[in-house]
Queue: 4 jobs
Job 1
Amino acid sequence: MHRLLTPSGNLFLVGNDAIVRGALEAGVGLAATYPGTPSSEIGDSLAEIAKEAGIYFEYSTNEKVAAEVAAGAAFAGVRSLTAMKHFGLNVACDSIFPIAAHGVKAGMVIVVADDPQGWSSGQSEQDTRMFARTGHMPMLEPSNVQECKDFTKLAFELSELLEIPVFVRTTTRINFGGGIVRLGKIAKPKTKGEFKNTEKWNNLPPKVIKRHAELAEKLKKAAAWAENKKLTQAVNLDSGKTGVIAAGVCFDYAMEALNELQTKAPLLKTGMSWPFPEKQVADFVKKLDAVLVVEELEPVVEYYVKKVAKDANPQLKVHGKNLLPHAGEYRTEIVGLALAKLLGKKYAQPAAVAKAIHRPPILCPGCPHRASFWSAKQAAGSNTVFGGDIGCYLLGIHPPMEIIDFIIAMGASQGITHGIQKASNHKAVTFIGDSTFFHSGVAGVMNTVHNNSNPLLVVLDNRTTAMTGHQPHPGSGKNAMGEPAREIKIDEVLRACGVDAVTTVNCFNVAETTAAMKRVIGSGKLGAVVSRGQCRLLTVRNARKDGVTLPIFEIDQKKCTKCGVCLYKFGCPAIHNDKKKFYIDPDFCWGCSVCSQVCPANAISAKAKK
Amino acid sequence: MTYNIVIAGVGGQGVLTLAAIITQAAVAEGKAVKTSELHGLAQRFGPLEAHVRIGDCYSPLVTAGTADLIIGLEPSEALRAVYYASQKRTIIVSDTKTIMPLEAYLLKKECPSLAALEKELKKHCKRTLFAKASDNARQETGTSLAANSFLLGVIAGNKLLPIKPETLEKQFESALAGKKLEQNKRLFKQGLKVNYQ
């Protein structure tokens, strides 16, 4: 039995798994996601348990489709869940907002994970709490792993009560925070319902106005429900005149900091970001002189506390972003310093950070993307713009490759590069991964064809969604439940979109890949190279599992001219220079062979097997 | 009192697996435990740290200056983690094998020597233990993949975890099988015998 299906008792879980467990306890029948860290593991765990739990799970092509699939199930009377990272919500909102106006029959929960500090988000920090207000949907905000489970379960109840989707909003430290969870009972899932059209579900104007008004009423109902369920809770009441209002993981930071300061202060945890718990906040601030609002990213709670205080306690001093950073994630010590200032206490300032050598993340040894980038550099001339996209290959922005000129959003390599070509005389190459191509690249490719520009489209086909943990996609030939699925072929899609010159190459063969890229660039016409090679992490993992030994390469010191191309230009992290010689660390060589192809002195070859 | 552990290494070295073994062992002994880790981009050969807090506490993250134990799978990463160390409280256990970052080569920077790192680390903590975990693992198994098992053995053998060595050893069984299980157990037991007292 999968551990997430443990019938009862206590279980150590991380936030993402606790969310899955909460959905199971609520009787979820269908779930659909597109992976996005920090929420990817919700899908991974669902994929692992779906068959055993008797529910349906899929990786959809993108977050918008996943939300639509979940909505369809909820229309048909089956409880559903979708999960995404903050950028995923941007993609999905076009459908999610109208789904709220339209309404659902069974409970539908949308988990959205923000990533303060951008641990897994190289593009921008984003606070999705404002989306709940814009879309007129309640948003619950768990502050620990137990609440991840409990709030997910409650979100289904609220969604069904109001007949609209309900958000559960997390942040990285909640998704990846582990702790012991008291389990509830798993409900028998309802996996089949019936779709019945009703007048209620016709939104066309002038009804759209009526629906808008109804949503406002529903949110009032949500506020009353949340009060009844005690989602927002106060502790240490009457322990002082300076209080704390905290949301999400910040509540635990504040509790920890107060503990470290060996003091107490009244503390209010807002378990719901929308509708704002005005009544509880008004009650809480009435007896206080000052309050510190602790929330990462935007001052959302702070704004509403100030608004509520105008009536409830006009003398109240509201602190927040004046004492705490607006950007980046918080930690106990950050909250502790602000609290100490306000409470007139001393808090030990963290010691100056020791100077450890800088180590930015890089492409793995044997990464197929490094091989493709190398070939593209050989093939493209000067005056070329290189459009990047979202995936591990965004690391191509770092030296020594430094080949990516911009990274914006999933699929954006296509449209932006087309725009640059229309507005300049640059040649262009775009890089897009296989999963990203299916997610949102195809529309951009069709636009490039229809509106006629001539980039070289390089599809970095590593046969998986690598960055988020190797999930399958429409080109994998296998679905989330492990069943065979029709493999959609990238080269066929490109041809069907009107890209005439399409070549599929083995990217670990530098000569073949470079030649294919040169042909397109030399033609001056639009063309594509599907640069194919499995994610080396997968190759290595599978080899270890199957007991297969991959070749390990070594540098022949007699032939090596110490030109440094393998290390300073190609940049494989398995290659080192100890000042006497260049050598390959056998612990990190994953046997891709590409260094042996780029070495101008032919000094690198596979080690003879013992 | 909470026992605060920070495991620091280079993404891909097994930081998360080691954290999971310690966590599961603490859970098996019925202890309260909170953890924090990162996935995704953070794992691609960049610095990676996992936090394990044993005992009742609130935050999943160890507060700066309050670590009881820092486990360095690589010594420069142990140095990065001294943010969590204090001279009063912290013991640092680290592998001796350094991994030079690619960027340092490109910028022609020197990677500090083990001796220099050791000297710097000592300034920030109560005690340091350096173990030739990667070297031992390579001697035993041909690769350094199982280095962390040796390091965990050293930690358990020197009584630096509030968990019994037997409970830790049991966790290997749920994570590994066959030849690998046997190799990792052997390295763990070798580590147990290394006494720094």
Note: The radius of gyration of chain B is 16 Å.
Job 2
Amino acid sequence: MIRMPVVSFAMVIIIMLASACSRQDAAINYDELTAEELEILYQQGHRNILNKLCDAYAKWYLERPEAEWWLDGSEYKREAGLKFVDYCQKAYSLENNKKAADHLRSYYLSLIDKQPLYLGEFIFYLKGSENTKIYESFVEYDSHFVALIEHSVMMIDKILSMNRYKFSDNTSEMIALFDRYRKDLKRIEPNLFMFSAEIRLIISMFDNLIESLGKARSDFEMGWIIGEFRGQIKTVGTFVTNISRIIDNPESLNKDILVKISDILAVFKQNKEKYFKQYAVSFLEEGTMK
Amino acid sequence: MNMNRWIVLVFSVVVGIFILTIGCGVFTIISRPTVELDTTPSKSVRTLDKDSFYIELDRHFAIPVGFGGECNGDFYRVISLREDRLICIVPGDVLKKNQSKFDIFNRDAIIYKVLKELNPAKHTCVMLVRPSAFEFYHRFLKDVLDSGFDFSWFPLDTFQPIVFNLKEGRLGIKR
């Protein structure tokens, strides 16, 4: 009973200390800090903010208007990019942060067009990304698109190699074939991921081709229309062909990445071959031309 | 008199340093490895041979790949997306787990057991050397030569996988 006041006093002191400490933590609102400020805290030992740091650098690097970067200089942007990749790679490998994988997936996708070998990194982070729908779209619909482009180029080459004076004998078969491509393209368009920029243009190219073939008055004109189309689809499909070539011959990818994504490449390739065969059995094949 | 002593002392020191320098130089020349890396590997290295045993050298690790066109499934992940192509990669975790087994400075390393099982009269060693292994290459090569094996080598980039082109019967690595 005599010690009661002492114990109460000690309790009050402990509670005050605890609340003071918690207030100090609560005083830092991480969401209001810039990427560089978060980085200072991280380097001072706040290791628990790695995910926030990755997120802040990713948003800063990926979403900042180019004009603002221009004012600060390209070297500054390059440094921010390196830090973004470094912190997000750490966040993904140490804490399996799927959002970090998502940021890196977007980043590598933006590089693939000019440097197709980043396909490996893109697929690796696609696999770890929180958005599983994108992964499904890639292996299912993008593979279909690649098969369709490769098959259409092959068939057009075959058509052009046949006797030029017999185009009109096969007009309905040719239009049916191109129409099937067009319908399939329209069907897969909403779900396409990687080649969503190319598909719209290719659909309109098939629209024009079918319309022009329907109006063509001579075999010569048909040959010219198909030849023009062949040139266009090969140009527009260059990116598709490059990606497909890497998937078929992945030995040029980074071995440490390749070993982790070979299963996805195998699924993509299987799907591509499956769709390619579907076209092969359904339409004009060698020997069936009139 | 004192002056003369100093001159003799300084002269002796200079002569001593001179002799030591020459001696070290000669010693260095003698102790240099007798086998040097050619600047370019011979073209025949690319051709797959059932009697050639492939060894991957990465840092101070020697990993037995297998005979031409084969990959040791115990350590390598074999990727075959095309029938005619075999890609062999040691996953990072496998390398980490088996570091002492691959270490060329460990006399019980797997590679020395493999070399003992091979026949120098019949088999040759082909070393696939990554840049990080150049420093250790001669050290390991000495063991291979001491075991009586003929050898050849092929450079691999740091992140390049090992590729066997089975259709053309050659190492499918582009240089």
Note: The radius of gyration of chain A is 29 Å.
Job 3
Amino acid sequence: MRNTFIKALECIAGNDPRVVLLTGDLGYGVLNSFAETFPSRYFNMGISEQIMTSAAAGMALEGNVVFTYSIGNFNTLRCMEQIRNDICYHNANVKIVSVGGGFSYGQLGMSHHSTEDIAMMRELPHMRVYVPADPEEAVAALHDAMRHPGPCYFRIAKNGEPKLSEKGADYDISKIHPLRSGSDVCILGCGPLLNQALKAAEYLEERNISAGICSVPCVKPLDVETLEKIAQQYRMLVTVEEHQKAGGLGGAIAEVVSGLNNNAPLLRLGLQDVFTSIVGSHDYLCDKYELSARYIADAIASRMT
Amino acid sequence: MTSEDLAWRIRCHAIDMVHNAHASHIAAALSAADILAVLYTNVMRVDPQDPDMPERDRFIMSKGHAGVAVYALLAEVGFFPVSELERYYTDGSVYSGHVSHRGVPGVEFSTGSLGHGAAVACGMAMAAKMAGRTHRVFTLVGDGECNEGSIWEMALVAQQNKLDNFTVIVDCNAMQAMGSCRDVMNMEPFADKWRSFGWQTIEVADGNNHEQLREAFSTLSDGKPKCILAKTKKGKGISFMENNLIWHYRDPQGDDYLRAVEELEAAKP
């Protein structure tokens, strides 16, 4: 997903001289082509996310579309106040690209697990938040962001995510998208964890529970219209995300459905207010923290019965 | 209007504004008044009738807590009516204690949390270079503000990108919130730090002296970003406020206010 996203950015930059890319000294082997093609619009700002973020705001206010690139929590939590005051308050046209959401950097440890970013970013006024699940969603998110001047956040995965669905010509990234139809329960997810949700639906089928799956790549602004329909259509809603249970996609959806009449109950699956103190592969950590397909299926089945 | 006239008017408004509003930070505004006045009278290219003129020089007040001085400055220069200053700190007003751009013509950028404005200004200077534009970018930071790590991140990026269109002025009033800079967080040798970070560094012995400031601003660039260390007096212009930490917090009332007004009247240029 990461490489596809950066390649798409390079295409956009070829047609749009406003596009500038800043990195916090990360992206070895990823940003080389952009840097060589657009040397005057590429800056390695050093290992210093605060100045990268503030300078991005300054450049954006001068008419540029500025992308900040880093991994994990470095260009989000590290410079949260710069994002709030310098970018968001000024509605600066800065696009924050963080590679390796959730457990993508599984073996590198908790410093590199970004598990609070969605909550932090979506809390900020003016910010749009994209959590794509496959490379096509990532590219669609990028094009959508270019149509919306102002702050955007992209949580980009990097482990060779497979294509989850066919996207037609009228595909709209800002909408909730069905990946699988069902009739009892609807699982809403964002990011590559949707793969686990799809498998979970198969396990549930064996237990005679019909699960629909939806991708919610645009966590903010949320597609409230579709969500309201879903909330009336199913007996239960479930959210899955590689993120703390509080404040992320589950939190965003809870905020909407709690205001509806006769809405389906909501089960939120995510990290249970814990830090990840062990390491492992992406799949291993998803399982360890009870977000793998079998845990998702079990959690749903036990709530349904 | 001469820069001396302008600085005096900034001080008069600032004293009245904090008196009426019971606002803090008057001493920080008084130390910076001369730098602001010289910038807007003799150095920068701005047009109050056209605040967004593309070729304008940019200024960001990084020490946003001295906002009262910026509002007084911009009103006197003509960005908005002087009568607007009465709204400072009042219910529903856009004139906040820390500088905010929304609804205030002439304010380039909102600040208040230290170590932000100078870094944004650095980005603006980079953008000007990128676009091949010739306007310059100025920012005023506090010496206490230089405790912030982001200032030194900015210092590195500016020298790396050879931003000779960028000037940082440090209002070296030698005091910060809880005491003297030297006692709280000694940054000496301060000028050496800026030089070693790759900046053309100019020390101004009296940063409240307009001639000395003008000379510093007119020093020819040597291709590096420029840092002007202006040794000012905190509370400058009101005898009992000078170098007295309490006036970072207190607002002049009663006899203090009358005395401040008297002293300013006597100092009218």
Note: The mean pLDDT of chain B is 97.
Job 4
Amino acid sequence: MNTPGTDVAYSLRALARDIGTDLVAHARHGADFHGTRLGGLRRISIFLTPPMLCIALFRVSHWVWAHGHERLAFGLCHFNLLLHRAMLHPASRVGAGFYIPHTVGVIFEGHAGRNLVLFANATVVRGREHPYAWDGHAGAPTLGDDVVAGTFAIVSGPIRVGNRVRIGPRAALQSDAPDDGLVVGSTRTRISPGLLASSPAAQKAKGSEMRRDRSVE
Amino acid sequence: MNKTEPISIAETRARLRADRERLSELLATRPWAEDGSLWFLPSYQCVVLHRWSHYLFSHRRRFLARLLWHINLLLTGADISPLADIGGGFVVMYPVSCIVIGKAGSNLTVVGHGGFGGGMAAGNVGGGPGLPVLGDNVWLDLGAVVIGPVHIGDHVQLCARALVTHDVPAGSVVDCLPSRIRSRATEAELSAK
């Protein structure tokens, strides 16, 4: 049940608390960059990093959606898309501690528990339906707590992903995954040494190499 | 490079009408199409900008065509070349990092994060040295990619992350291997990841 306007219990205070927890998650994951002490000025500086701004905008758009202003929610979502190149559907419910290190190409359309991590170009989608046809009801993936989706991962369809599941880079998950699961992509890059050796370009390169060798002698 | 044949305003408008109709069908469950607010959706904006960019390009208004193309890239994140000749009913679901150049029939669907385009050779749309030609009702799922001078038949579906570099006959479904689930990872595996 997440059609626009059905979650008016989601208060501004809860919104601020969620954003605060996200900020702490960003500080924890990015301790090398942000340092370990979280003063007021440091919090402001973390808030103004692109990933954190992206998540804050998403949270606000979800708040607006939950209070029944669908068009305004999509306006904020599109502003987010323009600024950060991430499509975070305003209907999706995500627990506190949401972390996106690199926002480009991230698509999220579903529900997730706490401490979700989405790497660049990770996508969580409904599958074959258009994103703007979603009203927040069933059909979207539901992720548990502490899920990590690697770069270029795809999670699609009305599936259930358990707690602490790790979805590897380039994996395509289209079925349920149990708790503590590890999902790995099954395409492996193969290297064929010298396969193009007979191509004209390679012959040419080889010729120039030989000439160079001779000049060294 | 190949020459793009001039396309009429009427044809461009007809294609845009087909785009709108198809999008309205897909969005039937929400009230987007009723009051003209389709214009606010990036997945429609990128198609409109591409249509006029292609129109201008085919009439040798190169600067304006490039301007619209660039605006499209800035606004929606979709890189749809002015060269691309795409039939009516074109739908892009997630425009970010969708890259399209070549020729396609009607009712093409590009979900996102992929597309179709040239390999290493130049031009000649028609299945020639560089660019792919797609039939009607082709569906490119998330991250599916078609590269090089290939023919894709009608009603072809490419599944997520599919990579196609040779011809595909009409009506086929191109699969990519789904990921395996190894449940119950050990602590050592988790820390190694």
Note: The radius of gyration of chain A is 22 Å.
